[in-house]
Amino acid sequence: MRDVAIIGVGMIPWGELWEKPLRTIWAEAAVAALEDAGVDTVDLITVGCMSPGLFVGQEHLASMVADQIGMAGVPAARVESACASGGLALRNGFAEVASGLADLVLVTGVEKMTDVDGADATFALGTAADQEYEGFHGITFPGLYAMMARVHMARHGTTVRQMAAVAAKNHANGLLNPNAQYHLKVTVDDVLASTMVADPLHLLDCSPITDGAAALVLAPVDRARDLAGGRPVVKITGSGMATDSIALADREDLGRLRAVQLAAERAYAMAGRKPSDIHVAEVHDCFSIAEIMVTEELGFFPPGEGGPAAENGLTALGGRIPVNPSGGLKSKGHPVGATGVAQVAEIVTQLRGEAGQRQVQGASIGLAQNMGGSGGSSIVHILEVAS
Amino acid sequence: MISPARSWREAPQRYRLEAAKCTGCGRVCYPPRVVCPSCRGRDFEHVVLPREGNVVTHTVVRVPPQGFVEQSPLTIALVQLKDGTRLMVQMADVADPETVHAGMPVRLEFRRINSDGEAGVIYYGHKAVPA
Ligand SMILES: [Zn+2]
User: Fold this and answer.
1) Alpha carbon distance A334, A111 (integer Å)
2) Surface of A (102-121) touching B: CB under 8 A
3) Which residues pair with A109 in a beta bridge?
4) Helix axis angle, A85-99 to A336-351, nearest 10°
5) Is A336 helix (H, G, I), strand (E, B) or coil?
6) Interchain contact A30–B (C-beta under 8 A)
7) Same domain? B71 vs B128
8) Going by C-beta distance under 8 Å and a sequence separation of 6 or more, which residues neighbour residue B69?
9) Do B35 and B99 fall into the same domain?
């Protein structure tokens, strides 16, 4: 396999972008990444998008968006793994460059979620769960994570205050990210005073509905060195993916996210790295409990220590392992298909030393973890500054 | 909206709790599968799930999905039946959701789950009630 670098990053401000259609937000992010990379054509476009059919009534998405930037003719494919679609788009692009099938790949993620009302958006997101044997009975996504939260709380003593601390920390980071959907200071008490959505998860434990897109440009490392222009070259050194039963009823242990653990194990093995080597991480905090469970599965903390770690500031900027310096899904927003790409965009920005006020000082090895649904899939990438 | 074909197809599981037991390793699959997830065996015998079990974990859904607004808040539990099979079900006949807890003994009862409006198909299935 060839070494693969990320030579371009494209992010746009996220939020309820009522004035722009999907094709426009996608094109803005794509163009930003191509400009950042200094290239004007690619061999392949990958598009992570969970459900354009349900959110905007559009399928055949990859061809449609390729044409929007004057690249009709270029191969383009949409990939889907629910909320991990963006991570999967990167993994597929990585495989193409590593194998030599393509040299330059434009990896993108997009979701336009506010063209439907809240009930329709909830339905679309719910299709990431087992529709026949979970959705049929009225369970929602917050409900599924709430059930896992209760198991984690009973087993480890994880508290609602620890979960709220994750949300407060990510909102604090989001204040430093101009592209974040919410620039809002949130305290632990604010979280606990917010509406209960699915006991024990409050509204402010949950990530929002967002319109957004993000993009990356991949190239073989040799080509990347020529195009870098003095900036650090960031390589993808590890890529791991795993699946799990999507129905909670079919899982052996509801206090674990096995797909995350397996994907991480595979990414660490490929990179030749261990959890203590990681300087900065972006993880899938779709709900506050998810970040706690994920930081344990990634090996940053032993089982049961994820909650206390968040409460004690170990995952804050300046802490032992800063998690979600971008503000995470919680504050930056969660346009589901775009999230996995934006996580990696943030890690590249951090490793280049271009993250401004939210910069993790001296970061040269980073990790991004993306999750599908209630843990039915997960994708982990490890990125490093090339020496 | 659930099609008549789907409603008819799912009746054995929804109405009668019919499942498939792997003859190789004994794992019960609800709903039935083609391949046993435990041993990858492909031979099954027809079984009916027991109705008694215990709550493994639960939540109270206070922001309900489409079609469940009138029933909100929904107490929903993951229940483990006596034979080890787990399934997601609503709790019924629970006056105070705060009394639901892990380990709570429950029994599955045939109940109305939902309907497609006033003149549409009515969906039946099972809910868990305190035993
Ligand atoms: Zn078997």
Assistant:
1) 9
2) 119-120
3) A48, A214
4) 60
5) helix
6) no
7) yes
8) none
9) no
Q: Which residue do the tokens 């999750």 mark?
A: A371
β-partners of residue B109 are: B127
Specify whether the CB–CB gap between A325 and A368 falls below 8 A: no
pTM of the model: 0.98
Neighbours of ion ligand 1 (CB under 5 A): B 22, 24-25, 27, 36, 38-39, 41
**Residues 6+ away with beta carbon under 8 Å from A172:** A185, A186, A316, A317
Q: Is A368 within 8 Å of A347 (Cβ atoms)?
A: yes
**Considering the domain A4-117+210-227, what is its CATH architecture?**
3-Layer(aba) Sandwich (3.40)
Provide the number of structural domains found in chain B.
2
Instruction: State whether CATH 3.40.47.10 applies to domain A125-207+235-385.
Output: yes
Residue of A49, A83, A206, A286 with catalytic role: A83
Q: Angle at the Cα of A351 (from A369 to A298), degrees rounded to 5?
A: 25
All structural domains of chain A with their residue ranges = 4-117+210-227, 125-207+235-385
Give the end of a domain, one of B30, B49, B68.
B49
Q: Do A245 and B56 touch (CB under 8 A)?
A: no
Pair B35, B54 in one domain: no
pLDDT tens sequence for chain B (131 residues):
788 899 999 999 999 999 999 999 999 999 999 999 999 999 999 999 999 999 999 999 999 998 899 999 999 999 999 999 999 999 999 999 999 999 999 999 999 999 888 888 899 999 999 99
Q: Do B71 and A148 touch (CB under 8 A)?
A: no
- Cα A72–Cα A78–Cα A79 angle in degrees, nearest 5: 160
Distance from CA of A354 to the nearest CA of B (A): 40
Place of tokens 């019924």: B92
Distance CA A276, CA A85 (A): 27
